[in-house]
Design a protein that fits this description.
The protein is of the alpha+beta class and 491 residues long. Helix content is 69%, strand content 11%. The strands form 2 sheets. A 4-stranded antiparallel sheet has the order 2-3-5-6, with no helix packed on it. Helix 3 runs antiparallel to helix 8 and helix 5 runs antiparallel to helix 7. The chain is rod-shaped. The two termini are 53 Å apart. The N terminus is likely disordered.
Length: 491
Amino acid sequence: MNRLFVLLLLACVLHPVEAQRILSLDSCRAMALRNNKQMSVSRVKQEVAKNLRKSARTKYLPHVSAVGAYVYTSKEISLLSDDTKNELGNMGTTASTGIQNAAGQMFADVPQLGTLLANSAVFQGLMGKVGAAGNQFGQHIIDQFESDTRNTFAGAITVTQPIFMGGAIVALNKMADIGEQMAANSADAKRQQTLFQIDQAYWQVVSLRHKQKLAEGYLKLISKLDTDVQKMIREGVATRSEGLSVSVKVNEAEMTLIKVNDGLTLSRMLLCQLCGMPVDEQVKLVDEEKDSLEVETVNPQFSMEQAMEFRPELRMLRNVVDLNKQTTNILKAGNLPQVALFGGYMVSNPNLYNGFQRKFAGVWNLGVLVRVPIWNWGDVAYKVRAAKGAGTIAALELDEAREKISLQINQSSFKLNEATKQLQLARASVERANENLRTADLGFQEGVISSTTVMEAQTAWLQAQSQKIDAEVNLKLSQVNLQKALGTLQE
């Protein structure tokens, strides 16, 4: 006995019975919002807009940049010409020759002294030293002017702080704020659209499930009637024509049940897809097995002004109008002066801060940059006019959307009132159809009513029940439509 229990337990573990998943409307909504791809896209867009807003804030702050460069040129910069270099290189020789000439002219009146001085080894040695020293000094000067700029290294660190950009930075930050709001409004619109779709799919499944039970009940009724009529035909109290009429109704009921089953299967697949589940997932809805749906027949009170504030589509259109205004401000900044502070540190090798030096040396700098546009052939003015035109279009579209939404709200409210009345009439029709069917069944059993009358009563009962299901679901969907029109469709 214990061994048998263990085997049964292992069988249950290895081959578990697939449980049917029970879902309510709220759980379907939560899964749809969590698994909907467009909702995920909206969340990413919100994150993108948030980062763009943070990026726009950095435009107020100073920006630091660094740059480095190396340049090789085939020739170096020379501040001295070749003739000047030649003169400096022979400066000593030129000087000694000049001294000798000057001495010769000085002692021209005493030829013997001039000849003695010219032939003196001491004097000639002195002039040679003077010439060599002068040439050496001249070469030193030439060497000092060598720049060696064929290999040049340079670098700089710059800090820029905008002071006034014509209002462009302020407008850019406002645009970033509006973009973030627009992303949030877009996510809200997609959220409401997702909830609207899931509600429609949910109540479609509930409606078809109720109609499936109705079709099954009708098939049992008509099948029982067919059995009774066949007995009556065998006993000779009913005609074959009556039997064929009932058989046709049985076939029609079977075809109706097949169609309802197919529609219910497809509707469940759609609901599973919207909820992010596999389409072949076995699900059961809470409202499927209820005899009647719990519906509120009270028409909610609403304010048109509040509806205009709640609708995300209108908020997005207002965002578009505001974006066009800020775009116009940015374009207007093109005609205004721009002021910025800048400062930094620059290094170069070779450098000129203490003559030509072949090493890195730098200098600090600080300045003010002012840019004043003078003439652009009206380019900015044309762009501003175009932006204002786009803003006018956005404002007109906003007004048109307000009118359409106002009409949509009134239509949804009217349809809700109409659906409430239809449900009341449908419930009354069901009561009469039930009584009519009961009376027809009793009359048929007593033999005072024909099968045709019973079939008519059953058909009327089927129609009344079907209309009641449609009216209940229609009232649910009408309430959802009104909530969506008011912008209050939330989890």
